[in-house]
Amino acid sequence: MAYLPLSTANLPDPAIDPAQGSSPADYFNTVLYPGNNSTQSIDVGFATDFTWIKVRNVADNHFLYDSVRGATKYLSSDTTSAEGTIANGLTSFTSTGFNLGDSGSTNNASNNFVAWNWKAGTSFSNDASATSIGTVDSNGSVSTESGFSIVRFNSGASGTQSFKHGLTQRPDLCIFKEKDSGGAGDHWVVWEGVALNPAQSYGYLNLSNSFANDASQWSNTAPTDSVFTYNSGYAWSTSQEMIAYCFHSVEGYSKCSSYVGNNNADGPFVYTGFRPTFVIIKQTSGSNAWVMYDNAREPYNVIDLTLQPHLNSAEIDDPDQLDFVSNGFKIRANDTNARMSNASGGTYIYMAFAENPFKYSNAR
Known about the structure:
Elements: E1 28-34, E2 40-43, E3 50-55, E4 62-66, E5 73-74, E6 84-85, E7 90-93, E8 97-100, H1 104-107, E9 112-118, E10 122-126, H2 128-131, E11 138-143, E12 148-154, E13 159-164, E14 173-178, E15 189-192, E16 201-204, E17 212-213, E18 227-232, E19 241-247, E20 254-260, E21 269-271, E22 274-283, E23 291-294, E24 303-306, E25 316-325, E26 328-331, E27 347-357
Antiparallel strand pairs: 1-9, 2-8, 3-4, 3-9, 5-6, 7-8, 10-11, 11-12, 12-19, 13-18, 14-15, 14-19, 15-16, 16-17, 20-27, 21-26, 22-23, 22-27, 24-25, 25-26
């Protein structure tokens, strides 16, 4: 049997391969910009379909825009509010990013902002009665290459319903929001299929509550490679316009998975198969915070700067949180506060996106 030398060059080619003219940065990119109280065009590097904006230096809401609902239409992950419109917020999506108006929420001259951006890019629609795929119609935008879809659907009548999610394999994580009602119970519902029972697991993006298993939430049915099943009137209200952001892991580009904490400064190493550029983490087994890290706000280890999707707080400098390394990330903090993702025996889910696949990563 012939053996190859021990070298990253001999690793398998990633699905999104820089050597073949594609890059993780073609599908996900973090951009920093200062506000200017006027108009400006933000260059993302691709035609973004999902843009999540947060002011860094003061407390204010998160603003989530997508091309399926349309520019100027936002949702805020830290509230249960219905979809809002800011005519001078994110005014349009472009072939290279997005344009901003002079709204202080996304372009105040006194503030600095971060924008996380995902590309979907291919429109789809499904007439459930015509295709027999799902029970309710859906439409949206999808990238089967990067495992990401944005889906709009109506929740339908009470009881078990399902919609086509547009991906070619079962999602690992989906985030749902009712667009219109905006009542106190209209949470950002998160389904995950990497740590708990995929037919029952759910949590809330707008709260730090632990995740739960509930057989009624998804009618005790895990998603498939074509449809997502839910219990209308239980998972959320009936006959509501919904938006969903669905993700599955792609080798060398993205990873949705879990790890177990040890409450030690020498925390767990989490293998992703790439050097991360962005990571979001949540404890499923406890009420620790959602936390978000990226290497645009902090290009060098140790990564300390934290934002939290469930809170409108300004960026926090938490010392010695984690390192981004060539093939994953290393937890560096013990569990001294709710933002430290390392409780002893605690289960954590995460979603990470690549700067470079391991095959092409360099030390930093």
